[in-house]
Amino acid sequence: MRHALTTPGRVDRIVDLATQVNANTLLVQVRGRGDAYYNSDLAPRASDLEATPPDFDPLSRLCTRAHAEGLEVHAWVNVFLVWSAPTPPRSALHVVNVHPDWISVRADGRRMVEMLPEEFEREKMEGMYLAPGIPEVRRHLRDIVREIVTRYPVDGIHLDYVRYPEPTVGYDADTRTAFAREFGVDPMVLEQRDSLALSVLGGEDRLADLRARWIQWRREQVTNLVRDIRRDLDQMGRNLKLTAAVIADQDAAQNRYLQEWPRWLEEGLLDAAIPMAYSPSTPIVERQIADAVALPTERQIWAGIGIYKQSARRAAEKIRLARKLGVDGIALFSYDTLLGRSSYARGIRNWAWREKTEPTRMPWRD
After folding, report:
1. What pLDDT, on a 0 to 100 scale, did the predictor assign at position 364?
2. Domains in the chain and their CATH numbers?
């Protein structure tokens, strides 16, 4: 959605489309790749906005227009993912340029800040990620969120990419030092062949225990950020909601992406989790949403439906299914699918729901 925030007319169009499909909430991507689609002292103005007047503030206009139509606005923040373009960010203020030491390192010692576009494509990684294990990184991200909720009348914060790209990431020097200080071993040792690691650690049980601790320790770094953001929002004195887009397959979320989101619900850190059940396969979506709804939590589950992958009729089928399973809301991905296709928006509205009072949440994504 962030590419639709480049002119006042496009901002107004977002609100118009939302009302057409009976949405009641907009999740608006205001931090895409370490940049800002709002007035920020902490991140550079998005390159999409370079040709716009400096006084044009997309988030401010959107809040005004959306609130006038009775829509909530949640500021969507891409958290650890900060760059994915083929060329480096031009702005000297961009976090990749200011703090290359904050960018994650892989287990093979390869620094993500040095990786080439073809390497990211080959490894099926979205781009450069900040290192969750560095306290200064988490502090910076908290400051980003605080800046948004302090300056704008948003109704909530929506977190995306609040995870690792894969389990073989997180081997920067600061993170390794922090783990070694706590557990007495450099995580790099745990990545050695079993025979070499055993020669250092002196036992299979100890090796297995430390490897499990290393995985859980990295999960904790992500959870710590979510917990701190929850605390920060609660201290604002406003009823600010916190939601997160999460990996729908819970096993993959926790073991591949080190994203322990069922725990976030259990601890009440989120107001709602949005499992990204984007598969065009109805049985897969049904299983993923059913597993989410079955979690022991009083917090909400909003079903993320990937409308960009399928026809309006098939998407509507999944929306009806998710509602039957007992979700608290529906999140449609993405806005671009609706833009310029009035028949798609009309089909969703007619086949999936008719009343605006029904619990529909709509994050529109690029």
Report:
1. 45
2. 2-363 (3.20.20.80)
